């Protein structure tokens, strides 16, 4: 308890190893950035009729409460007490200054790096922040089973654990390459009482077709989503849950950024740049949206605060994708979403950051990129793992491969500031630990991590079939 009585000058020189050190509490509401957008988000379109979707169009997949959150324009939505009770098992999460890493990097004292650590959740990542409320709302609605997909396994693990909190069965389709690389994710999910299948699987028509076309298919999130949706609509009283991309999912993650605002204030700091890795966009939104909301409302302590989304060069939806209406899955079962996309048929290389191998970015993040309010950067696997390794040696947290991309983004920001002789406060989201990713870290230790650049010709081929590049838009052209 003595830490609470440190003088202000002493406290600011220390790292905050617990929420108590900065007086933080779990937020009582989620922040909805749609209330502060200068231009509204483009609506999802019905895949057959090409009209804006109505709540009824989403009813086969989601309970009404989550559909209402998806389309809400209210700035804050209250977190139910039952959800807060579960989240309180690990939230608030710590915000720390990476002072040992700063020293290892040889940074000057006016370049400071802070990180929010989400690896202390039961599943080891930020994904549990949305899994808990999604299971809760489904349970209230009378759902008997939830189906879902997962890439690296963080989302599948989070939903499986959360299903156990509310006694709701979970069925998971994991991208096959990650399923084979991370066997203990399967063990974790099954320990939670959930079922898990490698995708593509023979359990669905979509999976069987993919295997028929390519028996060695490594899988993709697009295929896994198609399988989970097929399993949902073919089961009685089942619903589907998504771990990223959709607006209500991103909103659930804003507990991260809201806590960070309060915790940084305890250090007497405010960021110049906020960094997060991006696959579908959930952890980046979680750390960035509350700060971005302050900027959009002209309330930011630093009006020029920047936001950097870092993605893998092997799956570069924000930096090389087209901004257009596209399907969210390979079988084209989902509504059309306007987002940065590489094409729903895009098959990314088998990189170790399985959670970042999605062909499209969240519509909200894509929209903000188009408005010029966020920046995007693509990095190679080797650079990301190098950054993650140096962070681990200094700070003692082995990052998930996905998180290494945010670490590399923060590292580049710090180096640029030091080279320019500028003061800079950098905040990034350390979205999960890598304890289930030792296959990848073993490859790194052996010097076997490969860099990938997706060939331009293959990218052009995948984009040929994007509906938004073939006349589909809103409003529809005359």
From TrEMBL:
Residues 88-431 form the Tryptophan synthase beta chain-like PALP domain. The keyword Amino-acid biosynthesis applies. It comes from the Eukaryota. It catalyses: (1S,2R)-1-C-(indol-3-yl)glycerol 3-phosphate + L-serine = D-glyceraldehyde 3-phosphate + L-tryptophan + H2O. The beta subunit is responsible for the synthesis of L-tryptophan from indole and L-serine. This is tryptophan synthase. Belongs to the TrpB family. InterPro entries: Trp_synth_b-like (IPR006316), Trp_synth_beta/beta-like (IPR023026), TrpB-like_PALP (IPR001926), TrpB-like_PALP_sf (IPR036052). The gene is trpB2. Pathway: Amino-acid biosynthesis; L-tryptophan biosynthesis; L-tryptophan from chorismate: step 5/5. It comes from Symbiodinium necroappetens. GO terms for molecular function: L-serine hydro-lyase (adding indole, L-tryptophan-forming) activity; pyridoxal phosphate binding; tryptophan synthase activity. Tetramer of two alpha and two beta chains. Its EC number is 4.2.1.20. GO terms for cellular component: cytoplasm. Keywords: Amino-acid biosynthesis, Aromatic amino acid biosynthesis, Lyase, Pyridoxal phosphate, Tryptophan biosynthesis. Gene3D superfamilies: 3.40.50.1100. Its cofactor is pyridoxal 5'-phosphate.
């Amino acid at each position: 308890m003595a830490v609470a009585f440190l003088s202000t000058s002493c406290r600011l020189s220390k790292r905050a190893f617990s929420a108590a050190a900065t007086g933080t509490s779990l937020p009582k509401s989620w922040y909805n950035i749609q209330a502060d957008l200068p231009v509204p988000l483009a609506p999802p379109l019905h895949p057959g009729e090409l009209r804006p979707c109505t709540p009824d169009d989403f009813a086969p997949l989601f309970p009404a409460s989550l559909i209402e959150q998806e389309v809400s324009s209210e700035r804050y939505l209250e977190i139910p007490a039952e959800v807060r009770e579960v989240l309180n098992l690990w939230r608030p999460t710590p915000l720390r200054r990476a002072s040992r890493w700063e020293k290892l990097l040889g940074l000057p004292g006016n370049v400071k790096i802070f990180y929010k650590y989400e690896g202390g959740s039961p599943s080891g990542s930020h994904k549990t922040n949305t899994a808990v409320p999604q299971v809760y709302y489904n349970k209230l609605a009378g759902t008997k089973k939830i189906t879902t997909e997962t890439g690296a396994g963080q989302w599948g693990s989070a939903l499986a654990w959360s299903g156990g909190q509310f006694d709701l069965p979970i069925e998971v389709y994991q991208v096959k390459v990650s399923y084979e690389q991370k066997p203990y994710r399967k063990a974790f999910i099954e320990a939670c009482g959930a079922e898990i299948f490698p995708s593509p699987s023979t359990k669905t028509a979509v999976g069987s077709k993919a295997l028929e076309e390519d028996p060695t298919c490594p899988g993709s999130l697009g295929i896994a989503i198609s399988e989970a949706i097929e399993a949902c609509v073919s089961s009685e009283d089942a619903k589907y849950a998504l771990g990223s991309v959709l607006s209500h999912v991103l909103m659930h993650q804003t507990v991260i950024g809201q806590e960070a605002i309060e915790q940084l204030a305890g250090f007497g700091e405010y960021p110049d740049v906020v960094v997060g890795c991006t696959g579908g966009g959930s952890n980046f939104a979680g750390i960035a949206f509350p700060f971005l909301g302050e900027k959009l409302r002209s309330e930011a302590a630093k009006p020029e605060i920047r936001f950097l989304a870092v993605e893998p060069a092997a799956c570069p939806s924000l930096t090389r994708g087209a901004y257009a209406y596209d399907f969210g899955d390979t079988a084209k079962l989902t509504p059309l979403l306007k987002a940065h996309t590489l094409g729903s048929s895009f098959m990314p290389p088998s990189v170790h950051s399985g959670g970042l191998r999605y062909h499209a970015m969240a519509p909200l993040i894509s929209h903000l990129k188009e408005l010029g309010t966020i920046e995007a950067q693509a990095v190679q696997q080797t650079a990301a793992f190098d950054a993650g390794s140096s962070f681990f040696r200094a700070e003692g947290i082995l990052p998930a491969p996905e998180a290494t991309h945010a670490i590399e983004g923060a590292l580049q920001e710090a180096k640029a500031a030091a080279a320019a002789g500028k003061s800079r406060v950098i905040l990034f989201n350390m979205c999960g630990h890598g304890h289930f990713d030792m296959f990848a870290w073993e490859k790194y230790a052996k010097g076997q991590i490969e860099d990938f650049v997706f060939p331009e010709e293959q990218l052009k081929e995948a984009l040929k079939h994007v509906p938004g590049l073939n006349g589909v838009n809103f409003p529809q052209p005359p």
